[in-house]
Design goal:
Number of helices of chain A: 17
Structural class of chain A: alpha/beta
Strand content of chain B: under 5%
Distance between the termini of chain A: 51 Å
Bound molecules: adenosine-5'-triphosphate, magnesium ion
Structural class of chain B: mainly alpha
Largest interface: A-B, 43 and 39 residues
Low-confidence stretches of chain A: none
CATH topology of the largest domain in chain A: Rossmann fold
Oligomer: heterodimer
Helix content of chain B: over 70%
Number of strands of chain B: 4
CATH architecture of chain B: Orthogonal Bundle
Largest sheet of chain A: 6 strands, mixed
CATH superfamily of the largest domain in chain A: P-loop containing nucleotide triphosphate hydrolases
Number of domains of chain A: 3
Number of domains of chain B: 1
Strand order of the largest sheet of chain A: 6-9-10-3-11-12
Mean pLDDT of chain A: 84
CATH architecture of the largest domain in chain A: 3-Layer(aba) Sandwich
Order of helices and strands of chain B: HHHHHHEHEEHHHHEHHHH
Radius of gyration of chain A: 23 Å
Distance between the termini of chain B: 33 Å
Low-confidence stretches of chain B: 319-330
CATH class of the largest domain in chain A: Alpha Beta
Number of strands of chain A: 22
Radius of gyration of chain B: 21 Å
Strand order of the largest sheet of chain B: 1-4
């Protein structure tokens, strides 16, 4: 497929410096027409920075970029778009205050007699999104649709704008298998037409499924470019981390959970999640499995009181309790690490340190500030424990790489030392190394007697740490799996068949 | 925070109709074409200012200088027509260039120096007011015959209403603004900027150009409002139109535009202006109420509309559709 030696895009010696850090050090990247090129590396390795430097979103400090043999110098996303490079940046999605078709067509709207042609815009939006299996109203505000749909719209926009190169920075992080399938088929169509696609992700299965070659970054340097047909996943992981990684296996010792700490009976909220029962014991991890929109996030939110339940009873350590606000949950030593870190989690302009102690301070009350030394001790401890890569804890958290923001958010909740910790997609956007660390962290917390509820779309991960798995489907709990039943196959089967609760 | 912007617009329109009906049921003469004509004439300069303010607020900014710009414009015109022999139309053109450039300059400072619009336009407000004082501290009458000609352009409607040119200019400005905001790329970029400037940048919106243009439009329309005001009063006075920027902001908010930017309609602002004018008219008709009641009612309305926006935002975010509802199952 790649016998033509002329690259579409060739970047040489790309440098990027931030105050106090070298983010990219003489990075080379070559893209051939018709290939899917994976860009891999740990959190903070510099993948997103490379993309931003290539497309002009950042001003690069050195290096040249050639497109089809001629040097280009895009000074901003507009110019790179004009050159035919379409990009979906990590995190920054789209404009929630505008309609779906506005988002898809912003900057290249069809014009008729000097005025925007809304009718054509809406029609074409429908057509384009049909290709991704979406049948939605283009005139509605983007904010009225889920994150997954927004992500698909962002991809569709980049695809439409890219004539030569399409860059996708963690596009599939919030997508389901079915949607990923559609995105991949679009990508295959594009490469068949001779386009080059850059694909950044932490899901190695997806990398091997769709990509032809991979370039691996470590600490801002390229450590290798490989043809994926020649290497194994283990090789790539070793290249990324610089050392070998043990495969995560299910631990056998899930035997002895303690007393029941939280008991929910007929708990639910109309329109969000059908009534369910849950007995949560100390020292166990209850996994929530299911597709996107199956009610995983809703379950987490109802338990934490982000939305108050309208059915059922809750008992905490045998005492009836009303969990109708996060404030109460926080007082009772619950923690919830939410799924959508951009809107529900981080406070971008506050420092990493402030973000980490936010919840702890909130529980203490703002009138009783934590001691400076104590804060530093907590922050240092978690930065070390979770291996958060940063120049200094004083830097605004928005400057951290996506995965490191996620880790800082996790640190925030761990710092409150909760009795019950709810994690919604704790490993989204986290690299393989940190992924393994978080899994072992969950195990450690469980052994220390914490009760955890973890929602995840990754089956292997659930299998690795869950004592029990609740399978959700269409906002309803359909099955509970325990002990020997917890295998990837069983979970997948329960999700797809929706066998009724035994 | 998201909400349904259209609903807010409809509520503003309904409020206007309701207020009109209530006023009319007490004072049937309020339904006359005379009242309507006066509503447009008396609020023309404020209406024009509010159009510019809508652009600025939609883009996520604020412009506090407009009241001073109007006063400056009045004094500038009065003095230049008194001192020189140039034709008022030339003076108008000159003034519009000055105020547009002034707005553009504020926009450049806001963008390139990354200063908060509040501070920059506050400085602009003092600067313009100061310049007006420098030109003249007294009220300067305008006696040019061309002003009489303009004032004689009147369309007499059945029922005794006299629709003047300046009201027409205001309505025209709203129509043009609507077309620009909804039917041009620039207009959509204004909304994008107000939604999130970081996202808009990555989506390819020319942030610098859009920001500067938005404030230039604000300044230009304030200059036009100044011209209209000088026609309306036939004078220029440096102490005039103090606090008009706040009235304009109030009209924009009552019109359903979100103060944080990115959401709203210029048509809403039009009804915001009409509602405020209506309250004033009602108080004049009543005769016993102090004119300060206007401020009190507007204060109450503002509060009510902000609460309403909160409620709408809350209602729409709760109704977010999950992925599984709209993905076509294959
Ligand atoms: N504006 C900035 N100022 C200072 N440092 C920055 C800035 N932007 C990024 N960095 C740092 O540069 C490094 C590379 O970040 P980048 O976002 O490129 O990582 P990444 O490979 O995309 O990681 P992830 O997989 O977590 O998304 C990180 O250590 C980050 O903290
Ligand atoms: Mg990244």
């Amino acid at each position: 497929m790649r016998d033509q030696p002329k690259p579409v895009l060739r970047a040489r010696g790309i440098d990027k410096f931030f105050a106090g850090a070298i983010a990219l050090d003489k990075v080379d990247l070559t893209l051939y027409p018709g290939e899917v090129h994976a860009l891999l590396g740990e959190n903070g390795a510099g993948k997103s920075t490379l993309i931003k430097s290539l497309t002009g979103a950042y001003h690069r400090d050195g290096g040249t970029i050639e497109l089809d043999g001629t040097e280009i110098n895009p000074r901003g996303p507009v110019e790179s778009q004009k050159h035919g490079i379409g990009t979906v940046y990590q995190e920054v999605n789209l404009l929630e205050n505008m309609s779906v078709s506005d988002n898809l067509f912003l900057g290249w709207q069809p014009v008729k007699r000097g005025m925007l042609d809304h009718r054509q815009m809406h029609r074409r939006t429908r057509e384009i999104l049909k290709g991704y299996g979406l049948d939605i109203d283009p005139t509605q505000l983007l904010s009225s649709y889920s994150i997954a749909i927004q992500q698909v719209v962002a991809i569709a926009r980049a695809v439409e704008l890219s004539g030569k190169v399409l860059i996708l920075d963690e596009p599939t992080a919030s997508l389901d298998r079915e949607e990923i399938e559609l995105v991949f088929s679009v990508v295959r169509n594009l490469t068949a037409r001779g386009m080059a696609v850059v694909f950044i992700t932490h899901f190695l299965d997806q990398v091997f499924e769709i990509s032809d070659r991979a370039t691996v970054l470590r600490n801002g340097c390229v450590v290798g470019t490989r043809k994926l047909s020649d290497v194994s996943q283990g090789d790539i992981v070793e290249l990324m981390l610089g050392h070998h990684l043990e495969a995560t296996k299910r631990k056998a010792s899930h035997a002895s959970p303690g007393d029941t700490i939280l008991s929910l009976k007929g708990y639910g909220k109309r329109g969000m999640i059908a009534p369910f029962d849950l007995e949560l014991r100390k020292g166990e991890v209850v996994g929530l499995a299911g597709l996107l929109g199956s009610g995983r996030t809703e379950t987490c939110k109802v338990i934490f009181g982000v939305v108050s339940a309208d059915h059922g009873r809750a008992e905490l350590r045998g005492q009836p309790i009303r969990l109708n606000s996060p404030r109460i949950a926080l007082e009772k030593r619950f923690g919830l690490c939410p799924e959508d870190r951009k809107t529900d989690g981080i406070v971008g302009d506050l420092s990493v340190r402030e973000n980490i102690i936010l919840s702890l301070q909130a529980r203490q009350g703002w009138t009783r500030p934590l001691k400076r030394s104590r804060i530093n001790q907590i922050v240092d401890e978690y930065v070390k424990a979770l291996d958060i890569r940063l120049a200094s804890p004083n830097m605004p958290i928005r400057l951290l790489s996506g995965g490191n923001q996620q880790k800082a958010l996790l640190a925030r909740w761990l710092a409150t030392e909760p009795d019950i910790l709810i994690l919604d997609e704790p490993t989204r956007g986290i690299d393989v190394g940190a992924h393994a660390e978080i899994i072992s962290l969950i195990e450690r917390l469980r052994e220390q007697g914490m009760a955890l509820i973890v929602a995840s779309s990754e089956m292997e991960e659930l299998v690795a740490y869950s004592s029990r798995v609740l399978v959700l489907r269409d906002r309803r709990q359909v099955r509970e799996l325990g002990g020997e039943e917890i295998t990837t196959e069983r979970i997948v089967k329960s999700i797809s068949q929706g066998e009724s609760a035994a | 925070m998201m909400r349904s912007p259209r609903l807010a617009l409809y509520i503003t329109m309904a409020t206007f109709v309701l207020a009109f009906l209530i006023g009319g049921s007490q004072y049937p003469t309020m339904f006359s074409s005379r009242v309507v004509a006066n509503l447009l004439t008396d609020n023309a300069f404020l209406g024009l200012t509010a159009v510019g303010m809508t652009f600025v607020i939609l883009s996520g900014g604020i412009d506090l200088s407009v009241g001073s710009v109007i006063a400056f414009s009045g004094v500038f015109l009065a003095v230049i027509l008194r001192e020189t022999g140039i034709h008022p139309l030339v003076a108008f053109a000159l003034l519009l260039m000055i105020t547009t450039a002034f707005g553009g300059a504020m926009g450049s400072i806001i963008h390139y120096l990354e200063m908060p619009p509040f501070i920059v336009t506050l400085a602009g407000m003092f600067l313009m007011r100061g310049l007006a004082y420098v030109l003249s501290t007294d009220s300067v009458p305008i006696t040019h015959p061309f002003y009489d000609t303009i004032q004689d352009v009147v369309w007499k409607a059945p029922g005794g209403g006299r629709f003047r040119l300046i009201g027409g200019i205001m309505i025209l400005a709203y129509i043009v603004a609507m077309l620009v905001l909804h039917r041009t790329r620039f207009g959509r970029n204004v909304y994008a900027l107000g939604g999130s400037s970081a996202t808009a940048r990555l989506m390819g919106v020319p942030i610098a150009r859009t920001t500067i243009t938005v404030y230039a439009i604000g300044g230009g329309l304030a200059g036009l409002a100044g011209i209209v005001y000088s026609i309306y009063t036939s004078a220029g006075y440096s102490l005039a139109t103090v606090g008009v920027e706040l009235d304009a902001i109030a009209a924009v908010v009552i019109g359903g535009t979100l103060l944080t930017g990115g959401s709203g309609y210029v048509a809403g602002t039009f009804f915001g202006i009409l509602i405020m004018g209506l309250i004033q008219t009602y108080i004049v008709f009543d005769g016993t109420l102090s004119s300060w009641w206007t401020k009190i009612v507007i204060g109450g309305l503002l509060f009510a509309f902000i609460m309403l926006q909160k409620a709408l935002g809350w209602a729409t975010t709760r109704g977010r559709r999950p992925a599984s509802d709209s993905a076509t199952q294959s």
